[in-house]
Amino acid sequence: MTQQSYEQRRSELELYFDKTAAAAWEKLTSNAPVGKIRATVRAGRNEMRQTLLSWLPDDLSGCRLLDAGCGTGAFSVEAARRGAEVTAIDLSETLVNLAKERTTTDLGQGSIDFKVGDLLDPTLSGFDYVVAMDSLIHYELEDKVKTLASLASRTSQSIVFTFAPKTPALTMMHAVGQFFPRGNRSPAIVPSAEKTMMHRLSHDSEFNGWRVGRTHRVSSGFYTSQAMELLK
């Protein structure tokens, strides 16, 4: 893994979600009215969450699941309601605290252990399933692959994750974003070609015993993300 770039980007993300965009993300992930652009992002994220949930068993009773980059906890709650023992981790203490506030006691037989920290924490292990929804989109391809390899070494069933696909529209939006004042920019999204991602996951030795399963793209206005499944 390109450790310097990973750590630099991790620090940027922590600052962005903890300070710069905390209020915006709190509103985006609620039911509060938002503008047209953010409404498309909200709709896209909701569709993506349902897509990833549909790739997991309906009954997760007794299963351990890592929500890697849990944000405000919406996915964790749904997984727990299916019976999963969820470990939910995020770099942003602000978002994790918000997730705790929003989580009700109505989790059925499931549970959620919220943590602030890095999803690559080596103490996080022994999972049946891992979910990484939009938590890898800011990293270079090499870092994405190495992160997934690390998660795979600690997972027994499947990993479902998303990345930003390399499309003309995303390339244009990224270019336009560079004209905003630095203080108003979010950390850059790094698109990756779907075929390249599939090739790496299918041929790199770190993924021996794993295979690429389903893949699905969600496009909703200003939200475009590619879901992919890794199966043991």
Q: From the alpha-carbon coordinates, what is the Rg to the nearest angstrom?
A: 17 Å
CATH domain class: Alpha Beta
Can you count the beta strands?
Answer: 7
What is the CATH superfamily classification? Answer: Vaccinia Virus protein VP39
Instruction: Classify the helix fraction into a percent range.
Output: 40-55%
Task: Give the SSE order as H and E letters.
Answer: HHHEHEHEEHEHHEE
| Strand residue percentage | 15-25%
Strand count, sense and closure of the main sheet? 7 strands, mixed
Structure description:
This protein is α/β, with parallel strands linked by helices. The protein has a single domain (3-231), classed as Vaccinia Virus protein VP39 (Rossmann fold, 3-Layer(aba) Sandwich), CATH 3.40.50. It is 41% helix and 22% strand. The chain has helices at 3-20, 22-28, 36-54, 74-81, 93-102, 141-152, 168-177, 194-203, and strands spanning 64-68, 85-90, 111-116, 127-132, 155-163, 211-220, 223-231. It is globular. The two termini are 22 Å apart.
Secondary-structure topology with pairs:
Blueprint: H1 3-20, H2 22-28, H3 36-54, E1 64-68, H4 74-81, E2 85-90, H5 93-102, E3 111-116, E4 127-132, H6 141-152, E5 155-163, H7 168-177, H8 194-203, E6 211-220, E7 223-231
Parallel strand pairs: 1-2, 1-4, 2-3, 4-5
Antiparallel strand pairs: 5-7, 6-7
Summed up, what is this model?
With 232 residues, the protein is α/β, with parallel strands linked by helices.
